[in-house]
Amino acid sequence: NAGVTQTPKFQVLKTGQSMTLQCAQDMNHNSMYWYRQDPGMGLRLIYYSASEGTTDKGEVPNGYNVSRLNKREFSLRLESAAPSQTSVYFCASSLGTGDNSPLHFGNGTRLTVT
Amino acid sequence: KNQVEQSPQSLIILEGKNCTLQCNYTVSPFSNLRWYKQDTGRGPVSLTIMTFSENTKSNGRYTATLDADTKQSSLHITASQLSDSASYICVVSAVAGGYNKLIFGAGTRLAVHP
Asked: Chain A, 31-90: which have a CB under 8 Å from a chain B CB?
């Protein structure tokens, strides 16, 4: 099993450009998440999908959109990138959102916006 | 305000030595406390999850403790190895409407030297 797979691994954008970060999991998990990790700070939740067909805002959703394409795939879109969105983005999945199951993380996408 | 604070920010130890990392939290209502290991350039990996009723849990050479009264947790690493060099992240879960909201600490960066 590959677990959680994210693409691309690295990306450089100019201010105003758009891009979509892709995430797929093969663990038959119901819930999926997008986090960003910035130096000196804990991971912050951007959006999550508790189950296929639902999405909800997290702590820092402004400037992002998401799509839960099916049970396996959850994408994150930046419509008009800004330098403040320079970060490392992690996708994660879990069995559910209300239980004690652990999150399984991908290896991240390192995004630089110039 | 829900917060998770970890100390120290960074730590250097010699291979074979033991170390203890600290986590203090102000999160309510408490659901569980998790420790993750994050290798450089990789996503976090779950080490332990403890609920309110558990005060210790082990995973190999890693032992986590939880004192729910003082809202403190520690992660003890025994007989450290070079592969233990990583960031260790404390995560506290608060339950809200059937959803586990995760609050991440900023992590402790551990370097194990030969």
From this structure: 40-45, 50, 90
